[in-house]
Amino acid sequence: MAPIVDYSLYLVTDSSLVPKDATFLGQIEKALEGGVTLVQLREKDLDTGPFIDLAYKVKALTRRFNVPLIINDRIDVALAIDADGVHIGQDDMPMCRARQILGHSKIIGVSVNTIEEGLEAVRAGADYLGIGAVWDTSTKKLTKKTLGIQGVKDILAAIPPIPNVAIGGIKLNNGKELLANTTGVSGLSIVSAIMAAADPKNACEELLAMIREYVPGASLEQDVVKYAVKAAARVKSESPLVHHMTNNVVINDNANATLAVGASPIMSTNTEEVDDLAAINGAMVVNMGTLSPTMSDAMFAAMHSNAKNGNPVIFDPVGAAASKYRREMTQRFLDECKLAVLKGNTGEILYIANRGGQLRGVDSMGDNGGETNAATAVMETAKKYGCVVAMTGAIDYVSDGSRVFAIENGNPLMACITGSGCMVSSIVGCFTAVNRENYLFATIAALLTVTVASEKAGSRLDVNGPGTFRSALIDELYNITNDPIILTQYAKIREIKL
Ligand code: 3NM
C-alpha cells in the first residue's frame, strides 16, 4: 500500500529564485501557511554539510505544518536528516537501488518524461511520479522535449494508476488548463511560481483553491492520517491523565507506554479515589484481564464517574468468553456503562458481536471469518452500544457504527509479548483524552501509533526477539509521538465499504 500523501500542491524549492527582500526559509514558511501539501528540498549546488544544515532547518519548518519533506536526489542527505522521502531523476540513482537503501517506509518519487520511463518507474515501485516538463521553464535546463497537456495525457493513459504530479512551467492559469483537460493528475509541482512570488502565501492559496476544483481534496484516509499526526502531537503537548484499572500482568508496561507517548498514567484501583481522578479531564481505561468481584465494583464506579464528567471510557473485555463469570461481567459492563471505545482482540469482539470468536483463556484463536465478517462485527457492535469499536488482529478493524476502517500496520512480534493488546487500550485512552471531537479518528490514531511503533521496533538491528522488542516498542512509541509525521510514511489504512 502506497504512503497516504496529499500531493495536491507540491512545492519544489530553489534558493536562487528568492526575491531580494525575502529569505529562502521565509518563502517556504509563507508557502506552508498558504497550504502547500508537500515540500521537496532541491539544491543542486550545495555541498553535503551545508545541504544537511539547510535540510534540518526546512524539516523543522515542514514539521510545524505537518507536511512531509522530500529531498531531491541526495539519498544520503535524506537519511542523515530522516526526511520523509527522496525524489530521483532519470540520471540519479536507479529507483530499485534507492528502495534497497531507504526501505518501504520512505516515499520515493521519480521524474518521468516518456511512457517507457513511467512504466519502468511504476514497475520498480515508485510511490509517485513527477511528470514533466509540461511546459518550458527557466528554472531547470531541460534536456528532453516538453510534453504539453497531450503528452501528460498520453503517459497517464499508458501506465497503471499511480499518484503523480505534473511539473514544469506551471502557473495558475496553465495549471488550471492542464487540470481541466486531464483526468488522474494528483497535483501540481511548482518551483518559480511560488519561490519567486512576492507573496507566496497568497500564490499558494490561489493555486490550492484552483487545484481543489479539479483534484478531489484529501481522501478520507489522508484526513485520518493528518488527524492522527495532530492527535499524537496533542497527546505529547497536553499530557492527559489516564486512569487505568487494568490487570496485574501488564500494569508496569502499560504505565510505561502511557508515559512514552507523553501522557500521565495512574494505576489506582481504589474506589475512594475514583471521583477525584475523574474530575481531572483525562480518560479511564478499564481492562478485565484479572477481574475479581472487589475490583469490578471499583471499575463500575470509575466508569460511571468518568462518563458523568464527560471523560472517554475505554473498555477492554480481556478473555470475554473465557469463563461464565467473564461472559456475565462483559455483558454487564456493556449494558451498564457509557463507553467511548470498546477495544478487544479478534476473539473477544467476534464473541461480543456473536459472529464466531474463539478464545482460549485470554488469547484469540482462529481467524476473523473473513474481512466482511470482521468489518460487520465492529460496525454492528458499535451501533449496538453507541461507541467506537476496535478489533485488533493481523489486520485491525475500527468502526463508529457508520464507517469502518482497516489498519494493516503491525509486526508479528506483538503477539509474542504479553499485554500488547492492553497497551493498545492504554494508548487509545491517551489519544481520546485530548482528541474528544472525533473518537473514531482518535482511536485509529492510537492504533496507528502502536502498530507503526511495532513495525519500527521490529526492524531495529538491536531487536533480537520478544525481550528486546518489548523495550524497543516503548522507545518507538516515544519517538513517534515526538515526530508524528512519521505516521504518514507508514500508515496503511483503508476505508471498507460494506
Ligand atoms: N523538474 P518551474 S521541470 C525541477 O521536468 C523540475 O522533471 C522538471 O520549475 C522535470 O515550476 C522542473 O519554475 C522545474 O517551472 C520546474
Please tell me about this protein's structure:
By secondary structure, this protein is of the alpha/beta class. The chain has helices at 24-33, 48-64, 75-80, 95-102, 115-123, 148-158, 172-180, 192-195, 200-214, 220-238, 251-260, 274-278, 293-308, 324-336, 346-353, 371-385, 420-434, 439-458, 466-482, 486-490, and strands at residues 9-12, 38-41, 69-72, 85-88, 107-112, 128-132, 164-167, 187-190, 241-245, 264-266, 283-287, 313-316, 341-345, 358-360, 363-365, 388-392, 396-399, 404-407, 493-496. α2 links the parallel β2 (38-41) and β3 (69-72). It starts with 8 loop residues before the first strand and ends with a strand. The site of ligand 3NM has 16 residues, from β6 and α8. Ligand 3NM is lined by residues 12, 111, 130, 132-133, 137, 139-140, 167-170, 190-193.
Cα-based radius of gyration, to the nearest Å: 25 Å
Reading side by side through the largest sheet, how are the strands ordered?
10-9-11-12-13-16-17-18-19
- Which CATH first-tier class of the largest domain would you pick? Alpha Beta
Q: Count the beta strands.
A: 19
Runs with pLDDT <50, length 5+? none
Summarize the structure.
The chain is α/β, with parallel strands linked by helices and 498 residues long. The chain is built from 20 helices and 19 strands. The strands form three sheets. Strands 10-9-11-12-13-16-17-18-19 form a nine-stranded mixed β-sheet, with helices on both faces. The chain has an eight-stranded parallel beta barrel with strand order 1-2-3-4-5-6-7-8, surrounded by four helices. A two-stranded antiparallel ribbon has the order 14-15.
